[in-house]
């Protein structure tokens, strides 16, 4: 079995400028208008659940998890997942998702949600939220792209409500 050309490690505080530059390069300024970015705005991600991929000491990918609530339930929001374009399709992004969700499970979190493509995230343990539309974000999101991974069997049963940053309450 061939060894991977990249290594995965926990994100360090000094990685932030490189991660932000990579997000800017890949997603551009329009990323801030997306519903998932709006949830993360102004709140910190979980440094103990956020990972980077490196090749020869150069950061090529990143994934972050952020604490949220869905209705009254605690969960994590995965993203952004970003991979430097020359490294796309080489497995680093998927490995980052596997490592991050495993770490979340190890820390006794029950649920991880994300907005993403089912063919990519499905094999990584994510599936649609049932019924579609039961969970809402602050902004339009295709319900077919709002996915959940149960880190504890049955954790997504009855999942419903508005997604908010942890510690914030819905208006009125």
Task: Describe what this molecule looks like in 3D.
By secondary structure, the protein is an alpha+beta fold. It contains four helices and nine strands; from the N terminus they run βααβββαβαββββ. It has helices at residues 16-27, 35-40, 92-106, 118-121; strands at 7-10, 51-55, 58-70, 73-83, 111-115, 127-128, 135-136, 146-150, 161-165. Strands 1, 2, 3, 4, 5, 6, 7, 8 and 9 form a nine-stranded mixed β-sheet that branches. The mean pLDDT is 89.
Question: Helices, strands, pairings?
Answer:
Elements: E1 7-10, H1 16-27, H2 35-40, E2 51-55, E3 58-70, E4 73-83, H3 92-106, E5 111-115, H4 118-121, E6 127-128, E7 135-136, E8 146-150, E9 161-165
Parallel strand pairs: 4-5, 7-9
Antiparallel strand pairs: 1-2, 2-3, 3-4, 3-9, 5-8, 6-8
Number of strands: 9
Q: Classify the beta-strand content into a percent band.
A: 25-35%
What sequence of helices (H) and strands (E) makes up the elements? EHHEEEHEHEEEE
Overall pLDDT? 89
Radius of gyration: 16 Å
Structural class, by secondary structure, is alpha+beta
In angstroms, what separates the terminal alpha carbons? 56 Å
Low-confidence stretches: none
The number of helices is: 4
Basic shape: globular
Q: Bin the helical content.
A: 10-25%
Biggest β-sheet description: 9 strands, mixed
In short:
The chain is an alpha+beta fold. It is built from four helices and nine strands. The N and C termini lie far apart (56 Å).
Features:
alpha+beta; 172 residues; 30% strand; nine-stranded mixed sheet
